[in-house]
Amino acid sequence: MGLTVAVAGLNFGELWVPLYQLHPDVDRVVLCDASVETLERVGASTGIADRAQSLDDVLADPRIDAVHLLTPLQLHAEQTLAALHAGKHCAVAVTPALELDQLHQIVKAQQDTGLNYMMMETGAYSDPVVHLRAEIDSGAFGNVTFGRGEHHQDMEGWPGYWVGLPPMWYSIHALAPLLAILGARPATVRALGSGRLPSDREAKWGNPYPLETALYELEDNPVTLEVTRSMFQTTRSPIESFSVWGDRHGFDSGRTNDETALFYSWGAPGPGGRGRTVIAEPYSPPELSWTVPEELRPTLALPQNYNGASPRLVHEFVRSIVESRRPALDAVVAAQWTAAGFAAHESALQGGAVVEVPSFT
Ligand SMILES: NC(=O)c1ccc[n+]([C@@H]2O[C@H](COP(=O)([O-])OP(=O)(O)OC[C@H]3O[C@@H](n4cnc5c(N)ncnc54)[C@H](O)[C@@H]3O)[C@@H](O)[C@H]2O)c1
Predict the structure, then answer these.
(1) Is the CB of 38 under 6 A from ligand 1?
(2) Which residues are paired to 135 by β-bridges?
(3) Distances (CA, A) of 123 to 128, 149, 175
(4) Atom in ligand 1 nearest the alpha carbon of residue 12
(5) Is 233:194 a contact under the CB 8 Å cutoff?
(6) What stretch(es) of the chain map to CATH 3.40.50.720?
(7) Which of 30, 178, 195, 330 has the greatest CB tally within 10 Å of its CB?
(8) Residue 144 forms beta bridges with which residues?
(9) Atom of ligand 1 at shortest distance to CA of 35?
(10) Which secondary structure element, helix H or strand E, spans residue 240, and what is its range?
């Protein structure tokens, strides 16, 4: 008997519904959105008749095994706790919470209930991240020296809850690829804010900055990570990008959407033996269709699926439930990565002081 999964919040969530419909371990998908028009639109496009306008109705339905929350981010923590306490496995779009205490509550609720919780962070499961993690683990990439992540996106005109949000509270798309590749926990951070929001925007979340930039030290790992996030007043192409540099190879995903990702290797010694030439090849990931079941393979390359990340995340969440095991991006990982952003914003407010990233177990 396969799972019944409810997808709640059907703007971004609309893109995830077909992935659950295709998954061989999912029998039934239920749609949930507060807006009747959205429910009708997505119901018509997916052919799904099971619809709920209220998350409470979903949580009260004993036939539903799991909920994937893609509602506005300020609702995530409360809805996650409600879902777990109602006996539902819970997946959540980033960011999972906006306060440190909520992260502790989520970790505790997951542990108390024994249910599965997974953060559906697309940056941790893209083709290059899956590939480079394997290359680093096998030693083929060499020892990593440095990693840099950036996420720039202009949030003018987006729903009001984004206005003035501390950039580092939603820095996970810049940080996650690096942490996933290195398998590391962020330990300390020093960060600075840059620019100044108008005072009415600053008042909303008590954040003065349109952009924040941070340096992370890692636990038991000598690599430093540099992470930059902007949401307002930064005229440039939107991008989620990362680079990782090692002693044998380097990778750069490109710093605008028009740039090609490059994979670097050493060439011949330079003139007089000074330095080495560098071979920069356009990067293309290896064959990764084995990462998802056959039914999901055609979706890996679809542009809305974040370089294969969304189908892989759905597969990991569903299989972790079927196999009664913790998912890869469980409550502890979600808390550590999210708290890393909170710590960076705190550091920026303190003018760059070293702030410890809380640890969760
Ligand atoms: N790459 C990524 O991981 C990625 C990309 C885009 C968005 N997101 C995240 O996905 C989430 C949703 O983003 P969005 O842009 O679609 O947000 P949105 O505000 O545009 O849409 C949210 C949807 O949820 C519905 N909704 C609101 N309250 C609800 C409730 N209480 N119960 C049920 N439905 C409710 C709304 O009607 C709407 O359809 C956000 O947390 C965002 O951060 C992540």
Answers:
(1) yes
(2) none
(3) 10, 10, 8
(4) 16
(5) no
(6) 3-121+301-328
(7) 178
(8) 246
(9) 37
(10) strand 239-246
Looking at domain 124-296+338-356, its CATH superfamily turns out to be: Dihydrodipicolinate Reductase; domain 2 (3.30.360.10)
Superfamily designation of domain 3-121+301-328 = NAD(P)-binding Rossmann-like Domain (3.40.50.720)
Check whether 121 has a pLDDT greater than 80.
Answer: yes
Q: Structure pTM?
A: 0.97
Nearest CA to ligand 1 atom 1: 122
CATH 3.30.360.10 in the chain: give the residue spans. 124-296+338-356
Closest CA to 347 of 248, 242, 224, 213: 213
Dist. CA 25 → ligand 1 center (Å): 25
Distance CA 296, CA 294 (A): 5
Q: Does the C-beta of 123 come closer than 6 Å to ligand 1?
A: no
Q: How far apart are CA 151 and CA 137, in angstroms?
A: 26
Nearest CA to ligand 1 atom 41: 73
**Ligand 1 atom 30 nearest Cα:** 34
Q: Is the pLDDT of residue 162 over 80?
A: yes
- What whole-number distance in Å separates Cα of residue 178 and Cα of residue 283? 17
Among all chains, which residue has been given the structure tokens 């809380």? 358
Is residue 72 lining ligand 1, measured as CB closer than 6 Å?
yes
